[in-house]
Write a structure and sequence with these properties.
Elements (H helix, E strand, L loop, with lengths): L17 H6 L5 H10 L1 H9 L10 E4 L7 E4 L2 E2 L1 H5 L12 E6 L5 E5 H17 L8 E4 L4 H13 L3 E3 L6 H11 L3 E5 L2 E3 L2 E3 L1 H9 L7 E5 L13 E3 H6 L12 E2 L3 E7 L7 E6 H15 L7 E4 L6 H13 L3 E5 L10 H9 L3 E4 L1 H8 L4 H4 L8 E4 L6 H11 L6 E3 L33 E4 L12 E5 L14 H9 L8 E9 L5 E6 L3 E4 L2 E4 H9 L4 E11 L3 E10 L7 H14 L8 E4 L13 H8 L13
Parallel strand pairs: 4-17, 6-7, 6-8, 7-14, 8-11, 11-12, 16-17, 16-18, 18-19, 19-20, 28-29
Antiparallel strand pairs: 1-2, 3-13, 4-5, 9-10, 14-15, 21-22, 22-23, 23-24, 25-26, 27-28
Helix pairs in contact: 2-3, 5-6, 7-8, 10-11, 13-15
Bound molecules: 5'-O-[(S)-ethoxy(hydroxy)phosphoryl]adenosine (WTA).
Length: 635
C-alpha cells in the first residue's frame, strides 16, 4: 500500500525557538482550531473579511448541491483585485513583488507597481486577441517572469488558465489543450535547464498538429535560438507588448466568487488526466490564510517557494498567495545543482532568503553533494523551512533542519493536493514537530484516518485519509466531467459525505498524522504525481508492446522510480535496443519524468479474475517481499 518505506512515529520532538513563538501570528494553534471548529462558517467569513470584494457574499457556504459546494455565493471579486490592485493605493506599490534569477545568472526585479503594469499590458494583449471571460488559455512555459504575468493577466480578464508543466511531452500537452479547448496558447522559445535549452516551442509545434483548435500562440523570447514562427498563428510576446493596444491600464474583470480561476491537470487512476477546477473567491481566502499562518509571512521576508508555477504549489504559493499578502518572492529558473552544487545556498545567501519551501526529493538530491557545499555560505537569513510533495524521510528532515537550517529553523511539512488548493495538514511555527509527520490539520479543517467502513482508526493503525467537511479552496469539479468528480472523491464515503484524499495515513498517540502514500494507482516520482495508467498506455501505444504494467519501487533519491513490465507482440524482439526505444517513446508520449528506470519483458502479468493487473504482486516481487494474498489471482 505504501509508496515508500514507512517510518514509524518517533519519540523525538523538535520545539520551536522562542523568537519564532514570540512573533507568530497564531500563538496558540489549538485554541484557534477549537474556535474554528465551534463555528466553521463564521471562521471562514472572518478570514474573507481580510480581503477586498466588489460585493460581499449572501452566503458563506451553499451546500444545497453537495458535493458541488459553493463558497461565498453572491460575492463578486477577482483574485487580482487582492493580489495586485489593492496594493497600488498603498506604500506597498513600491515594494518588491518578485526577484527573479535566471539559470545563466541574469536577474530581474518587479515592484508591485511594475508587475501590475506588465499584467495590465498583457491583459490588454489577451483582450486584443479576442479572449473573453470564461475562455480557457493554455500556458506552457518555464520559470520566467512572463509565466507569472501571463497567469495573472488571464485571471485579470477572467479567462481561466490551464498551465501545463514544461516537462510534459507534446502528447500530454495536446491532450490538455484538447480537454480545455483553448484557442490561445502562451509559451516561450526555450527554457534554460542545466546549461541546455529545453525547446518548448518545438514541442508546442508538434502538439498543435494534433490540436487545430489553437488559433494563436504567443511566444516569449528567452533562449534566443532560431525557431519556426507560423505566420498568422504565432506572435512574439515582446512585439505584442510593444503595440499601442497594450497600454498599462486595464480594467479588472468583475468575477463571481464561484467563477473559474484555473484548471490544473493532475494524474488519476485512469489514463486521462483530470482537470481540477478552482475558483476566484474561496481559493483566495484559503491560500492567503494558510500562507500567512503557516509561514508567518511578513513584508520583510524573502519567500522562496522552489516549486514550478506549473504545479499547484506554484499556483498557490508562488503566484497567488504571496502577492495577496504583499510579500516579496524569489523565483529561480533553473536546476538546483547548476552550475555547481551550491547554487541554492549561494542564492539564499545573496538574496537574504528567509523562508525556503521545497520538496523532499530536492532535499535528498542536495544532501548527496555533502555538507561542505552548504557550509560555504552564510544561511543565517533563514528562519523557517518547508517541505511538500511526499512524506519526508527523517534522515532528510534532520539534514534539512541541521545543515541547512542551522538547527534553528522549524520545518513546516505541509500535506495537501492539487485538489485541496492549499495546505491541509501542517504545523504552524509554534507547533512542536516530529520529523516525518505533517502534524495536525490546519484550523477549520477536519480530517481523520478511517477504515473501509468509515470507523476512525485507533492510534497506530493504517487507514484512509478523509476530509470530513468542505473548505473554501476545495476543487469544485473535474473540468467537463462532473461524474468523475463524484466517483473519484465522494463515492467511497458517500453516506458520510467525506472527501477521499487517495492517501493512506496513520495517527499516533499524540494525534499527529503520518501520511504514508497513495492508495490508488498513482506514483509519486520526485514529488510528481504520475498515473500508472498514463505510462502504461504510453507503452502500449508502441507497436511492439501488447500489454504493459507499471509499478513504483522505492528509490532513495526520487521516493519512487518507475519500473515497467511489457508483454511484446508476437515476433517482437525484447532486446536492449527496444528498451532504449521504449524509453524514448515514453519520454515523447508522457514526458521525461515518466520514463521507466527499468523495463522488463515478460510472458504474462499477474491479474485478478476480472482482468485487473495486480501491481501489488509485481511490487512485492520486485522488492523480494512476500507476495501476500493471492486468492484473487487468475492463474
Ligand atoms: C503527496 C502537491 C506526505 C500525497 C501539493 C498527496 C504528501 C499528493 C505531502 C498530492 C506531505 C503531498 N507528506 N505526502 N507533506 N504533500 N503529498 O496534487 O500523496 O501534486 O495526495 O499536490 O502528494 O500531490 P499534488
Amino acid at each position: 500500500m505504501a509508496e515508500r518505506g514507512f517510518s514509524p512515529p518517533t519519540s523525538e520532538w523538535f520545539h520551536p525557538p522562542p523568537e519564532l513563538v514570540e512573533r507568530a501570528r497564531i500563538a496558540d494553534p489549538e485554541a484557534t482550531s477549537a474556535r474554528a471548529a465551534a463555528d466553521r462558517l463564521a471562521f471562514w467569513e472572518e478570514r474573507a473579511e481580510t480581503l477586498d470584494w466588489y460585493r460581499k457574499w449572501d452566503n458563506v457556504l451553499d451546500d444545497s448541491e453537495a458535493p458541488f459546494y459553493r463558497w461565498f455565493t453572491g460575492a463578486q471579486t477577482n483574485i487580482t483585485l487582492n493580489a495586485l490592485d489593492r496594493h497600488l493605493h498603498t506604500a506597498r506599490r513600491n515594494q518588491v513583488a518578485f526577484i527573479w534569477e535566471g539559470e545563466p545568472g541574469d536577474q530581474q526585479t518587479f515592484s508591485y507597481w511594475q508587475l501590475s503594469r506588465e499584467v495590465n499590458r498583457f491583459a490588454n494583449v489577451l483582450r486584443g486577441l479576442g479572449l473573453q471571460k470564461g475562455d480557457r488559455v493554455t500556458i506552457y512555459m518555464g520559470r520566467i517572469p512572463e509565466i507569472v504575468i501571463a497567469m495573472l493577466a488571464c485571471a485579470k480578464i477572467g479567462a481561466p488558465h490551464s498551465v501545463v508543466y514544461g516537462g510534459f511531452s507534446e502528447q500530454a500537452l495536446a491532450d490538455r489543450i484538447q480537454d480545455a479547448q483553448s484557442r490561445v496558447l502562451i509559451t516561450q522559445d526555450g527554457a534554460w535547464l542545466r546549461g541546455k535549452i529545453v525547446r518548448l516551442k518545438e514541442t508546442v509545434d508538434a502538439a498543435l498538429q494534433q490540436s487545430p483548435i489553437v488559433e494563436t500562440v504567443v511566444v516569449a523570447r528567452r533562449t534566443g535560438q532560431d525557431i519556426t514562427m507560423q505566420a498568422g498563428r504565432d506572435y512574439w510576446w515582446h512585439e505584442l507588448m510593444a503595440s499601442p493596444q497594450a497600454g498599462a491600464e486595464a480594467a479588472t474583470a468583475v468575477m463571481d466568487a464561484e467563477d473559474p480561476l484555473f484548471i490544473l491537470y493532475t494524474s488519476g487512476t485512469t489514463g486521462k488526466p483530470k482537470g481540477v477546477l478552482h475558483t476566484h473567491g474561496g481559493y483566495q481566502v484559503y491560500t492567503s490564510t494558510t500562507l500567512s499562518w503557516v509561514f508567518d509571512l511578513r513584508e520583510e521576508d524573502r519567500w522562496w517557494c522552489a516549486a514550478d508555477p506549473g504545479w499547484i504549489t506554484g499556483h498557490s504559493y508562488i503566484v497567488y498567495a504571496p502577492l495577496i499578502l504583499g510579500a516579496t518572492s524569489f523565483l529561480y529558473e533553473g536546476a538546483p545543482g547548476y552550475p555547481a552544487p551550491d547554487r541554492y545556498w549561494r542564492m539564499i545567501a545573496e538574496h537574504g532568503i528567509s523562508i525556503l519551501y521545497t520538496a523532499p526529493t530536492a532535499i535528498r538530491g542536495l544532501m548527496r553533494y555533502g555538507d561542505d557545499w552548504v557550509k560555504r555560505h552564510d544561511l543565517s537569513s533563514l528562519r523557517l523551512l518547508g517541505s511538500v510533495g511526499e512524506p519526508i524521510n527523517p534522515e532528510a528532515w534532520k539534514w534539512y533542519h541541521q545543515v541547512v537550517g542551522g538547527g534553528r529553523c522549524p520545518i513546516m511539512d505541509t500535506w495537501w493536493q492539487t485538489e485541496t488548493g492549499g495546505f491541509m495538514i501542517t504545523p504552524l511555527p509554534t507547533v512542536p514537530l516530529k520529523p516525518g509527520s505533517a502534524t495536525r490539520p490546519f484550523p477549520g479543517i477536519e480530517v481523520d484516518v478511517v477504515d473501509d467502513e468509515g470507523n476512525s482508526c485507533p492510534a497506530g493503525v493504517d487507514g484512509k485519509l478523509v476530509i470530513q467537511s468542505p473548505w473554501p479552496s476545495m476543487l469544485r469539479t473535474v473540468y467537463g466531467d462532473p461524474q468523475r468528480y463524484i466517483d473519484q472523491y465522494w463515492s467511497e464515503f458517500a453516506e458520510q459525505g467525506w472527501y477521499l484524499a487517495g492517501d493512506s495515513a496513520r495517527k499516533d498517540e499524540d494525534g499527529y498524522i503520518w501520511v504514508i502514500g497513495r492508495i490508488d494507482d498513482v506514483l509519486l516520482v520526485s514529488g510528481y504525481r504520475l498515473g500508472t495508467a498514463e505510462i502504461e498506455s504510453g507503452l502500449v501505444s508502441h507497436a511492439a508492446v501488447a500489454e504493459a504494467a507499471v509499478i513504483g519501487v522505492p528509490d532513495e533519491l526520487r521516493g519512487n522510480r518507475v519500473q515497467a513490465y511489457c508483454i511484446l507482440v508476437a515476433g517482437a524482439e525484447g532486446d536492449e535496443a527496444l528498451v532504449a526505444e521504449l524509453k524514448l517513446h515514453v519520454r515523447r508520449e508522457v514526458g521525461p519524468i515518466a520514463v521507466p528506470a527499468a523495463i522488463e519483458f515478460v510472458e504474462t502479468l499477474p491479474k485478478t479474475r476480472s482482468g485487473k493487473i495486480m501491481r501489488r504482486v509485481l511490487k512485492a516481487e520486485a522488492q523480494g517481499l512476500p507476495l501476500g494474498d493471492l486468492s484473487t489471482l487468475e492463474d
